[in-house]
């Protein structure tokens, strides 16, 4: 199954976002961001989260984040390898997640639906 969201451009534009186009070995800013995301740890057993700050504009969960980040999908972050021609969008803040939750709760099949993966 695959999950599909069709989000209005104006709603995406209201989020603070960061976009990465290239993920070659020398793309320091991209790989720094990937490492930041992979090494930050969620809270456990009442302890606060360990967040490696990447200086995003939104203060949340003990660090600074972007609402939404677009970029290449990582194949092996320690060796700085990304999949060719495969991108992703990641939602990092409450504002970004609330946008998706509102679409799910609307039950509008044009905006949100599960679809079988075609082989």
Q: Tell how many strands the DSSP assignment holds.
A: 7
Helix content range: 25-40%
Rg over CA atoms, rounded to whole Å, is 16 Å
Classify the oligomer: single chain
> Which geometry do the CA atoms define?
globular
Q: H/E element string?
A: EHEHEEEEHE
> Can you tell me the number of structural domains?
1
Structural class: alpha+beta
Low-confidence runs (pLDDT<50, min 5 residues)? none
SSE inventory with pairings:
Blueprint: E1 2-5, H1 9-13, E2 17-19, H2 28-39, E3 58-60, E4 63-65, E5 68-76, E6 81-91, H3 94-106, E7 112-115
Parallel strand pairs: 2-5
Antiparallel strand pairs: 1-7, 3-4, 5-6
Describe the structure.
It is a single chain. With 119 residues, the chain is of the alpha+beta class. The protein has one domain (2-40, 53-115). It contains three helices and seven strands; from the N terminus they run E-H-E-H-E-E-E-E-H-E. A three-stranded mixed β-sheet has the order 2-5-6. It has a two-stranded antiparallel sheet with strand order 1-7. The chain is globular. The model has no long low-confidence stretch (mean pLDDT 82).
